[in-house]
Structures are given as structure tokens and as C-alpha cells.
Amino acid sequence: MKFLFTLVFMVPLSFINMGFWLNQCVYMVLIFLFLVEMSLGSMYCNISYFLGVDLLSYIMILLSFWICSLMLMASEGIFKSNYFYKLYLFTLLVLLISLYSTFASMNLFVFYLFFEFSLIPTLILIVGWGYQPERIQAGVYLLFYTLVASLPMMVSIFYYYNLNGSLDFFFFFKSVEYFMFYLCMSMVFLVKMPMYFVHLWLPKAHVEAPVSGSMILAGVMLKLGGYGLMRLMQMMIPLAVKVNVVFIVIGLVGGFFVSLICLRQGDIKSLIAYSSVAHMGMVLGGIMTLNYWGLSGSLVMMVAHGLCSSGLFCLANISYERLGSRSFYLNKGLINIMPSMSLWWFLLSSSNMAAPPSLNLLGEIMLINSLISWSFFCMIFLSLISFFSAAYSLFLYAYSQHGKLFSSLYSFSMGSVREYLLLFLHWFPLNVLIMKGEFLVLWS
After folding, report:
1. Cα–Cα distance between 223 and 60 in angstroms, integer?
2. Is the Cβ–Cβ distance between 354 and 386 less than 8 Å?
3. pTM beyond cutoff 0.85
4. Chain centroid to CA 104: how far?
5. Distance CA 244, CA 227 (A)
6. SS3 (DSSP) at 51
7. Residue 351: strand, helix, or coil
8. For residues 157 and 184, what is the distance between their CA atoms, to the nearest angstrom?
9. Among 36, 122, 351, 397, which residue has the least CB neighbours within 10 Å?
10. How far apart are CA 247 and CA 371, in angstroms?
11. Cα gap 330→236, rounded to integer Å
């Protein structure tokens, strides 16, 4: 509760003159306090009236704090151009409050409330600070995909309350064996992840969003889907054992198709956005196997993907700020003019294809274990997804860094210290957390 109050009382801080970097410092202090505060057991700790944290919530909240502070660091352009930056800070703060409340809530209805509310600041970020006029269409896609799936969930929450008598996660004892209930309850999370077939809002939203919008979408918003499924699958286990095969197949086959789509992209942000769909397809498969390897592997993969994908969007934005284009056909030969930035392209692209020592590797190994122990036939699509993730990551790196440079087109400045720090703060936890891998799997 004290962290929630800290965030609420930060609202005046958003509106003071020259408060941009002060907000950044406060976020960093909050991250430090949150790290120090929690003494984690397997059950909930730090319980207040409606909030509490277990390991799953803790890691997701920490990821939210981390990504939001890095979003500020990436958005210096908004501050320098004085483009409603106070309103931007306020929107970011409201988004962080809603994410914190979503992950920390111990009641299903409170979770649902803030889960839906987090959509509004994201929409304002995309429509208010996006780059192209198409951002309106992207916002409408984002809004209606989520709303159409989420209203049936509200009805199923009321139904479950009538059946169970409580909506606290701790008292989810009754299992429901109705397919319609299963579909209504999980569909909103499948859209948010996003599962193949309901993923079309994601590339649109990413491409039109400002860098901060892309970072929060890739870093945290996609994880809401996985988090919700992990929390709520326990109330549907008897039916899920029979039905989940459909979603595992869609996750894996869809992941393979999306990997092929990645190889045909002409837009850097679009490629990174589609690669998110492929990675989250594996996460969906891991959660749906309902075994320990799968849940732990999904958690690891969500953290890894949040850091890696967010870092790649930062890199795409660094190029975009200098070239004014995200097209692969203009982003060529960048190694000639920014060799130091080329190193970061390499490090984050290699992490994206699960090269050691990144956390993605640990996540993929655990998910492969989980899915193959569930069915040996998963081996086919898992190997294809792994191969093509390497293919499109190499394509992203080689096409943007190598090739003939049309020097007359470019007016380049070298990377600033802020940009290198931003990229380091994405890459460092991504590759160092693997040394503390047991911390991410000791939850039950």
C-alpha cells in the first residue's frame, strides 16, 4: 500500500517545471526500495487491505517499475520539444499505478478493474504522442480487440462469485467445467498476449506508438495476458486438461507462421512486434501444459522478452530519430557511421534469438522441456520456431548494419551517454539474471 500511495503522491511532481528527470530519479529510488522491501516466501507477503505480493506479482511489478523508468529515459525528445511533457509524465504515472494495482491485487474483480483501466493511458500515449496519422486506427484496433474480449470476462467473474462466494485468489477452490466459462474467462488474456488469430492489433499499435508506447506494450502489457492465465487457470483445471491442446497447437503453429512473416517485413518496428507474437506463442504453450516447468519457463520468458523487446524498440527509435524512417531500405550500413551502436544491435539481436548467456535461453530451454514432456510432437514446431527466431534476428541485424551506405542521405550524430545507458540498463539485467535463475523458478 505504501508504494501505491507513493505513486499517487507523485502526481504533483509531474506538473512542476523541469520535473522530467526528477521523476526519473524518483522511479529509480522506488525500484531500489521495492527491491529492499520484499522478503519473499512462496505465499503472499506484505499484505494490506486488497494488495499483496507473491513471487509472480513481485517480478512483474519490478519489471513495470524498471520499464517505466526507462521509458522516461528514452523519451527525452518529448521533453526537449516541450510537447505536452507534463501531461506525458502524468499519463505515465497513471499507467504505472494501474499496472502496480493489477499485479498486486488479491481480488479478481479489482484485478479486472485495473487490467481494463491500464488500456486507457496506453491509448492516450499512442494517440497523443504517436508518429503517423494512422495512430487513430491503431488505437481503435487496440481498444476494440480488448473490449470485445473483456466484457464476457466480467459476466463470467459475476457467475464465479455467485458459485464460489468469494473472488479472492486465495479462495479459488471450486472448479468450473463449462466450456463457455473457460472461453469467456481466458479470451481477454489470449488477446492481450497476443495469441495468433487475435494478434492483428499488436503490429499496428507498435508501429504507430511512440518509443515509450512500444516499450510499455512489449515490456509489460503483453505480460498481463500471461499473468492472468497463470492466476486463473487453477479454477478451470478439469476442463483445461481436455481443451488446452487447441491453444498449445495455435500457439506453436502460429509462432512458426509469424516467424515466417518476420522474414518478409520492410519495417524495423513491425519485425520486432511480430517477433513478440512468436515468443508469446511459446509462453502460451508453456502455461497451457499446466506443469511446473511450463509455468516457471513462461515467467522467465516473459521477463526476458520484456527486457529484450523493449531494448530493441529503443534501438529502432534511436535510428528513427536520426533518419526519420524505420524502413530497412534506408536503415542500411549503420555500422559505418555508428559502430558503437552496432554493438548494441548485435547484443540485443543475439539475446532475441536466445543466445547464451541471455535469460531468453533459460526460458526457451524450460519451455522446450515443458512442451516436449507434454507431447513429443511439439518438437517439430519448437525446432522451427527456434530456427526461424535466429533467422529473423540475424536478418534484423545484418540488413540494418551491413550493406551499401548512401552517405548523401545521412546527417548523423553519434549516440549520447543517455542512449548508451538506456541500452545498458536493458541488456545488463537480461544477461545477468541468468546467474540467479533459481530465484525465478522457486515459486509454487
Report:
1. 8
2. yes
3. yes
4. 17
5. 17
6. strand
7. helix
8. 9
9. 36
10. 12
11. 50
Q: Report which residue type is found at 108.
A: L
Q: Render pLDDT for 44-91 as a digit per residue (tens, 0 to 9).
A: 677 777 888 888 898 999 999 999 999 999 988 888 887 788 899 999
In sequence order, what DSSP letters do the residues of 284-318 get, joined into one string? Answer: HHHHHTTSHHHHHHHHHHHHHHHHHHHHHHHHHHH
Q: Running DSSP on this structure, what letter comes out for residue 53?
A: B
- Say which amino acid occupies 118: S
Q: How many CA atoms lie within 13 A of 314 on its CB side?
A: 34
pLDDT tens by residue, 13-23:
888 887 788 89
Stretch 239-250: mean pLDDT = 94
Nearest to 118 by CA among 228, 15, 22: 228
The three-class DSSP label of residue 272 is helix
Which cell is 239 given? 476442463
Amino acid at site 16: I
Collapsing DSSP to helix, strand or coil, 234 comes out as helix
Rounded to an integer, what distance in angstroms lies between the CA atom of residue 86 and that of residue 253?
44
Q: How many CB atoms lie within 10 A of CB 249?
A: 16
Three-state DSSP class for residue 178: coil
- The single residue listed with the C-alpha cell 516436449 is 372
Residue with grid cell 504505472, as numbered in its chain: 96
261/264 Cα distance (integer angstroms) = 5
Q: Note the residue count of the chain.
A: 444
**Residue whose C-alpha is closest to residue 60's, from 119, 100, 111:** 100
